[in-house]
Amino acid sequence: MSNNKWESFVRRVEPYIPGEQPGDANVIKLNTNENPYPPSPAVKRILDDFDCGRMRLYPDPNSEVLVDAVAEYYGLKPSQIFVGVGSDDVISMAFLTFFGSHKPVLFPNITYSFYDVWAEVYSIPYQTKPLREDFTIDPDDYKGENGGIIFPNPNAPTGVLESVDMIDEIVRANPDSVVIIDEAYIDFGGESCLPLIEKYDNLLVVQTFSKSRSMAGMRIGFAMGNEKLIKYMNDVKFSINSYTMNHLTQLCGAEAVKDDTYFRETTAKIITTRERVKLRLRELGFTFTDSKSNFIFAAHSSMAASEIFSKLKKRKIYVRYWNKPIICNYLRISIGTDEEMDRLFEALEDIINE
User: Fold this and answer.
1) How many CB atoms lie within 10 A of CB 2?
2) pLDDT tens for each residue of 54-74
3) Which of 16, 99, 102, 128 is deepest in the core (most CB within 10 A)?
4) End-to-end CA distance of the chain
5) pLDDT by residue (tens digit) across 267-316?
6) 64-74 vs 247-258: helix axis angle to the nearest 10?
């Protein structure tokens, strides 16, 4: 019989569960907030012309070609940019770097469900703060003693956008801890708090290429902040793995940033579709927050979200559902193409009128 004493030393956590990735190409996939449009044509040119022989060499550990492109686009110094393998990697590294005071890190009770996973895996104490009834943040909840603060803006899964003034209020009240604003969805109609990094040396702003730049499959995220914050993050990163981002990804990311025209065209299309979807969902009996993201967080007036979720899935339309308190009657519906959303409306009409 084996001795399982080693298991008592295992770090056990409940892992993050991502949205389902169906293998069926005929599924209308509205469950993971991916961009329905392809990346910039400039990215395809890089892929078409790439010399595969270069893959035998280690990539640039500093990702200079990508860092320089991001810095130029946002009007920052390269020393103010940290890049990682998706914003999940970036935020995970930020947890490990900044949240070591043994005081609780604060974030909302309804938010991106990876935050508590990172806190658990790194043994970081945390407290969740309840959102108001309209799913907005009460800034007074974030003015007590803490070991750090993080929340998305717009929030996920609610899509609610907080004002830059409110974020300024929170950062101003917390000079002794790092405040991280996760702006994964900011490009779909929100105002970034990025200008505040020149005002506060403890503010870190995180964004991603996965949503607005159509590159979820390439895994590119980045953080912007004071040079000292970025140096500390790089020190931790290089203590774990110097070569986190491959050469091809660096090149593709840089070209995607440079193609601002395509970026603005695709985000504008998604915003237009989102506003049309709001009108149609309201006609179908749904209520929802005024989303400023690429998804809508909606509840139906007379039918349970779990039932709608199951019936949509049988029709090969995937949306996101959580069987959790407070949000168990809501569906998160990603914005797809106009054609995909029309298919969704047809299915919802059938389901509601059955």
Assistant:
1) 5
2) 999 999 999 999 999 999 999
3) 99
4) 57
5) 999 999 999 999 999 999 999 999 999 999 999 999 999 999 999 999 99
6) 20
